[in-house]
């Protein structure tokens, strides 16, 4: 750990540790699924909903809305949802349900995620309040729950907007959002079981030993008891049991919680990766309670010397994109898509078709089903907590408020193999998140790395984010950036001084600054960029081709220089809004879809960016705008191999006039596993002046050729 971190840690260590320990006192079930004798009653479905004040429940409920979902999905619709409005301070949700048979010792209501500030009444009595908006809430409800088929009334109040929360806690501020839509946006369930019950479990895989360490929290109810935890490990897909173990028996006093652990080898162990997302299931029982939890045997870290990502003991290059779920929440075409498992699964499949193996869930967490699907599909997730401050005080979250939310977040998600990086914040300069990281990082026994945004990294095995937005210059009123300038650029992206305190791996998880709306119009951040590059009369197709070609060229550049652990484009899913107003009302960023239901990408983007992210990638290191007619120039072609198998094939250099090939020169090429080769060609411009393109093309005789393409003009000498 660097010396500059230590003095601050000494001052805060005991306070922060106390905060974590105090927060762990209430029961928190984690992401556990039910297994007999535990039962879970899903409370998802259609709820009654009404707007009103914060203190008094509405006299009548005249609207209905889905849970999970958002308040703008109510029927009849409410006006001005997501904006500060005199119409309301809160939304009140109501439903009834029944519990068959007697109420057991343990009855816990779990609200996976709701915003902004959650307060719960059961049968007219307050059972608790939970202010965090991005992590699950748990309420013990046994005392007020009716069994034996009697009707129960559940009422949940959520604040109407960010203003409902204290300014010293995270509220999800985003410089590009203008709607902060409240609602119960993840599942609600009632957990019924008996003591000793399983509060939380952490599966800690050991890749080298082909084993799993199981660390479980067991708690008694209102009387002393004994517990002997039994564990089975089964294949998630087929259900075949492959290992079992029993922890030593423990005695628990009334209300006491203890941690027990057991380690078991996994015969025939299969590792999880994006290429082979093999999942196991833990089945745990104390005799009185049972729970299931999926996990995988995989490891992930960054090597502080090489600054490479290491997956399952091997170098692994991250290629991917971003999902900004909370921006998508305010998209006109969102509908119920974020809560439809089949749509979310198809979305991730489409992402994988682009050769993406990783995503940043950016500035906020989607519903939990997204993480289950990422586990199943095989996608590495940089999981970013929704703090985005830049250097402004749009909100002012403090360490003591961040720690409980980080803790809830980690406990909910630490068994997901897809989650490989805890991302504390985005583009923020603040000491608060760093102090919170130091307080909670030891909770994760798998020791995942952390990203601390624009603030200083907190450990040598962590990573830092780079956002090389070269085309931002035109937006900020400076001389526009030209692609030809890349010829003089370093392959190491610029970092803020705070990020350079430790030698950490770099992930480029934003770049471009060329956004177009889904209908091909510039956004409020890119109108000046396209005016400088194409002029005022450019067509939609011209803009789309330029966007795709330039974005592909930048992707090739950052990937082929091998200075970064990962390259993730921005963004794969966001919103699309007209760019005729400044942000936040005007569209600032966007994604690339032409049909969200069918999940059709804009064709130019799909064509060029799919090549740019090919595991065996190619970069034509030629950036000149012109090459005189008949002139010759040496050019480099870089070929990289992200695979663990050798690549053999030919590299062609082709000069094109439209679709017509004017000339071709070729070389044989072999690239070692995870290797990089640079070839030298002589590029001969056509003798006839005109507009041309040159392509470097990979051809292994098996798959479709992979291209790197540059345009140039050949003026007369």
Structure description:
The longest helix is centred in the last third of the chain and has 21 residues. The protein is of the alpha+beta class. The N terminus is likely disordered. It has 4 domains: 161 residues, Galactose-binding domain-like (Jelly Rolls); 100 residues, Immunoglobulins (Immunoglobulin-like), CATH 2.60.40.10; 314 residues, TIM Barrel (Alpha-Beta Barrel), CATH 3.20.20.80; 98 residues, Immunoglobulin-like (Sandwich), CATH 2.60.40. Helices cover 15% and strands 34% of the residues. Helix 1 packs across helix 5, helix 1 crosses helix 6 and helix 9 runs parallel beside helix 10. Strand 22 and strand 23 form a beta hairpin. It contains 10 helices and 42 strands. The chain has an 8-stranded parallel sheet with strand order 30-28-26-25-24-33-32-31. It is globular.
Outline: globular
Helix segment tally: 10
The CATH architecture classification of the largest domain is: Alpha-Beta Barrel
| Oligomerization status of the protein chains | single chain
CATH class of the largest domain: Alpha Beta
Radius of gyration, whole Å: 27 Å
Give the N-terminus to C-terminus distance in angstroms. 60 Å
Compact overview of the structure:
The chain is of the alpha+beta class.
Give structural attributes.
alpha+beta; single chain; 4 domains; eight-stranded parallel sheet; Immunoglobulin-like; TIM Barrel; 34% strand
Which helices and strands occur, and which strands form pairs?
Elements: H1 6-23, E1 33-34, E2 39-42, E3 45-52, E4 63-67, E5 90-98, E6 106-111, E7 118-122, E8 125-130, E9 137-140, E10 151-159, E11 188-193, E12 197-206, E13 211-219, E14 225-227, E15 230-235, E16 241-246, E17 250-252, E18 257-265, E19 280-285, E20 290-295, E21 300-302, E22 309-311, E23 314-315, E24 318-323, H2 325-328, H3 341-353, E25 358-361, H4 369-377, E26 380-384, E27 388-390, H5 399-413, E28 419-423, E29 426-428, H6 432-440, E30 450-451, E31 463-466, H7 472-475, E32 505-508, H8 527-534, H9 540-560, E33 566-568, E34 593-595, E35 600-601, H10 603-612, E36 616-621, E37 632-641, E38 647-657, E39 660-671, E40 676-684, E41 690-699, E42 706-714
Parallel strand pairs: 24-25, 24-33, 25-26, 26-28, 27-29, 28-30, 31-32, 32-33
Antiparallel strand pairs: 1-20, 2-11, 3-4, 3-5, 5-10, 6-9, 6-11, 7-8, 7-10, 12-13, 13-18, 14-17, 15-16, 15-19, 19-20, 21-22, 22-23, 34-35, 36-37, 37-40, 38-39, 38-41, 41-42
Helix pairs in contact: 1-5, 1-6, 3-4, 5-6, 9-10
């Amino acid at each position: 750990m660097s010396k500059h971190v230590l003095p601050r840690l000494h001052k805060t260590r005991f306070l922060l540790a106390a905060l974590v320990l105090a927060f762990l006192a209430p029961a928190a079930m984690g992401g556990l699924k039910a297994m007999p004798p535990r039962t879970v009653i899903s409370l998802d479905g259609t709820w009654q909903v009404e707007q009103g004040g914060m203190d008094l429940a509405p006299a009548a409920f005249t609207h209905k809305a889905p849970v999970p979902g958002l308040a703008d999905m109510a029927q009849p619709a409410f006006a001005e949802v997501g904006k500060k409005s005199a119409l309301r301070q809160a939304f009140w949700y109501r439903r009834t349900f029944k519990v068959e048979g007697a109420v057991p010792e343990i009855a816990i209501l779990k609200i996976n995620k709701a915003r902004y500030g959650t307060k719960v009444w059961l049968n007219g009595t307050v059972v608790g309040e939970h202010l965090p908006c991005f992590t699950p809430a748990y309420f013990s409800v046994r005392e007020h729950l009716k069994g034996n088929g009697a009707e129960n009334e559940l009422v949940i109040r959520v604040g109407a907007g960010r203003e409902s929360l204290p300014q010293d806690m995270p509220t999800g501020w985003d410089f590009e959002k203008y709607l902060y839509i409240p609602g119960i946006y993840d599942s609600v369930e009632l957990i019924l079981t008996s003591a000793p019950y399983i509060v939380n479990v952490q599966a800690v895989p050991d890749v080298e030993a082909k084993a799993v360490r199981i660390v479980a929290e067991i708690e008694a109810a209102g009387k002393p008891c004994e517990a002997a935890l039994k564990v089975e490990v089964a294949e998630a897909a087929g259900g075949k049991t492959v290992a079992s173990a029993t922890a030593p028996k423990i005695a628990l006093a009334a209300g006491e919680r203890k941690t027990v652990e057991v380690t078991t080898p996994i015969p025939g162990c299969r590792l999880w990766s994006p290429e082979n997302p093999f999942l196991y299931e833990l089945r745990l029982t104390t005799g009185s309670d049972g729970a299931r939890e999926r996990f995988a045997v995989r490891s992930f870290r960054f090597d502080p010397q090489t600054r490479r990502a290491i997956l399952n003991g091997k170098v692994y290059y991250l290629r991917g994109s971003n999902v900004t779920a909370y921006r998508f929440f305010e998209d006109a075409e969102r509908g119920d898509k974020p809560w439809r498992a089949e749509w979310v699964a198809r979305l991730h499949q489409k992402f994988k078709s682009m050769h993406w193996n990783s995503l940043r869930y950016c500035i906020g967490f989607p519903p939990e089903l997204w993480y289950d699907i990422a586990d199943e599909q095989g996608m590495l997730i940089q999981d970013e907590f929704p703090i985005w401050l830049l250097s402004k005080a749009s909100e002012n979250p403090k360490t003591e408020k961040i720690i409980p939310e980080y803790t809830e977040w980690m406990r909910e998600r630490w068994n997901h193999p897809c989650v490989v990086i805890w991302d504390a914040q985005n583009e923020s300069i603040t000491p608060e998140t760093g102090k919170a990281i130091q307080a909670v990082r030891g909770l994760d026994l798998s020791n995942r790395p952390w990203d601390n945004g624009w603030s200083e990294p907190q450990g040598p095995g962590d990573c830092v984010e780079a956002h090389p937005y070269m085309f931002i210059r035109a937006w900020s009123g400076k001389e526009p950036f030209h692609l030809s300038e890349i010829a003089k650029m370093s392959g190491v992206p610029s970092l803020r001084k705070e990020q350079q305190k430790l030698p950490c791996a770099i992930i480029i998880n934003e770049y471009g600054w060329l956004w177009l709306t889904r209908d091909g119009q510039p956004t409020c951040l890119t109108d000046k960029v396209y005016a400088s590059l194409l002029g005022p009369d450019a067509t939609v197709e011209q803009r789309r081709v330029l966007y795709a070609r330039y974005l592909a060229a930048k992707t090739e550049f950052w990937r082929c220089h091998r200075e970064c652990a990962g390259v993730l484009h921005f963004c794969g899913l966001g919103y699309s809004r007209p760019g005729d107003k400044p942000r936040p009302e005007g569209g600032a960023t966007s994604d690339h879809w032409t049909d969200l239901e069918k999940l059709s990408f804009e064709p130019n983007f799909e064509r060029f960016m799919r090549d740019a992210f090919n595991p065996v990638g190619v970069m034509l290191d030629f950036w000149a705008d012109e090459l005189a007619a008949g002139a010759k120039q040496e050019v480099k072609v870089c070929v990289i191999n992200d695979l663990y198998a050798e690549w053999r094939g030919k590299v062609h250099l082709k000069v094109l006039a439209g679709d017509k090939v004017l000339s071709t020169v070729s070389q044989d090429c072999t690239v070692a596993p995870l290797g990089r080769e640079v070839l030298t060609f002589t590029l001969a411009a056509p003798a006839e002046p005109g507009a041309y393109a040159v392509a470097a093309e990979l051809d292994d005789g098996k798959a479709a050729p992979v291209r790197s393409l540059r345009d140039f003009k050949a003026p007369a000498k």
